[in-house]
Amino acid sequence: MTEAKKAVILLSGGLDSATCAAIARSEGFELYALSVDYGQRHKYELEAARRVGQALAVRQHTVVAVDLASFGGSALTAEIDVPKDRSADTMESGIPVTYVPARNTVLLALALSYAETISAADIFIGVNAVDYSGYPDCRPEFIEAFGRLALLATKAGVEGRTKLSIHTPLIELTKGEIVRRGLALGLDYGMTHSCYDPGTDGRPCRRCDACVLRRKGFEEAGAIDPALRDGGS
């Protein structure tokens, strides 16, 4: 029997990362989940990541703390208001204050360290360059550049023992296509959390960019969001 290949999955607990993890699992990878507590205001996503990891039977789930809130500079890590009720045109017209400086660079660097430690050649990240809020570190150019860096920056890459691959199965999908893909894989989106500015009880605001894009995805997929139906996020 062929041993399953190891893969590190960056698991935030949101819709995209959960779908990405489900895709990786469906492709036969043994999943090593990595979640990062970076000082985000929406810490409910970390509990959602735990639920998703358990549901997908990840081999190991590691949570790392990296305090990006000590730098601030983002509505997700500082006392800056999260934008609400933005139109699709507005979301596509610039980089919003919810952008966390260099976040995906930091997350991928951690995933790279984890992957090299466990001798994994594959990293999955749920970035999306179609329905997204204008983040520069969700673009294909960034992923391609980081892939080149990974080969130069690791012992495994320099010695040629491992050719690291960064998988972005969602990068060219619309939110509706992402939701349909996850539902087809049997993913329970009721476990996930997307809201940038939840209430003290974890309920979604339903007005931030993340909530708007999530709603758009379920509407396009012709499906009901179980998280909202059940009072979740």
Give a topology summary.
Elements: E1 6-10, H1 15-26, E2 30-37, H2 44-55, E3 60-65, H3 88-91, H4 103-117, E4 122-124, H5 140-153, H6 155-158, E5 165-167, H7 175-184, H8 209-221, H9 226-229
Parallel strand pairs: 1-2, 1-4, 2-3, 4-5
Plain-language structure description:
This protein is an alpha/beta fold and 233 residues long. It has one domain: 3-Layer(aba) Sandwich (Rossmann fold), CATH 3.40.50. It is 38% helix and 11% strand. It contains nine helices and five strands; from the N terminus they run βαβαβααβααβααα. A five-stranded parallel beta sheet has the order 3-2-1-4-5, with helices on both faces. Helix 1 links the parallel strand 1 and strand 2. Helix 1 crosses helix 7 and helix 7 packs across helix 8. The longest helix is centred in the middle third of the chain and has 15 residues.
Return the average pLDDT rounded to an integer.
92
| Topology-level CATH name | Rossmann fold
Secondary-structure element series? EHEHEHHEHHEHHH
Could you say which structural class the secondary elements and strand pairing correspond to? alpha/beta
Total tally of structural domains: 1
What is the CATH architecture descriptor?
3-Layer(aba) Sandwich
Strand portion: 5-15%
List the total number of helices.
9
| Relative helix content | 25-40%
The named CATH superfamily? HUPs
Low-pLDDT runs: none
State the end-to-end distance.
40 Å
The dominant shape is globular
Over the alpha carbons, how many angstroms does the gyration radius reach? 17 Å
